[in-house]
Specification:
It is a single chain. Helix 2 runs parallel beside helix 7. The protein is an alpha+beta fold and 153 residues long. The chain has one domain. Helices cover 46% and strands 10% of the residues.
Length: 153
């Protein structure tokens, strides 16, 4: 379990429209700011993947939630996010968890294969929607956040 100031880091592909949309969705619903974010192309995102023992290229097609207990990938990453949010998202996460991982990940992979790719202003942190710029930037993880995650493992 994470310490009081250690927040999981959601590592995402900043060039992926679906990934950016997911992060915007998360910021709007994570009112307690439980999660930090990092684009996989940036120094912080690369450091988070490395701290979790993951290859850099994994985030090109996979959402990763880096936490002191280790990484959550693909559908498990989605569930990890949903499980920490309020109703109805926590319940949705529990329902998805009931589906066998193999099936969940096949659906995840099918969606990932069709996701919209688009150039981002800064793929290191994605492109925030105009109304979320301040909140998005406030959630960007730092190298210190990643070091704290790694130290707790």
């Amino acid at each position: 379990m994470s310490g009081p100031n250690i927040r999981p880091v959601v590592v995402f592909d900043g060039d992926c429209g679906l990934c950016n949309g997911f992060v915007a969705w998360l910021i709007r619903r994570d009112r307690e700011a439980q999660f930090l974010i990092a684009g996989s192309a940036g120094e912080v995102g690369r450091a988070a993947l490395s701290a979790m023992g993951l290859p850099q290229e994994i985030a090109a097609s996979t959402l990763v939630v880096a936490s002191p207990s280790g990484p959550a990938l693909r559908s498990d990453a989605t569930i990890a996010v949903l499980a920490r949010l309020s109703w109805p998202w926590r319940t949705l996460g529990a329902a998805i968890r009931a589906v066998p991982r193999g099936w969940r990940n096949r659906v995840y992979d099918a969606i990932a294969a069709r996701r919209p790719r688009r150039p981002a202003e800064d793929p290191a942190c994605g492109t925030p929607p105009a109304g979320l710029v301040a909140d998005w930037r406030a959630r960007l993880a730092t190298l210190e956040d990643v070091e704290a995650l790694h130290a707790r493992r």
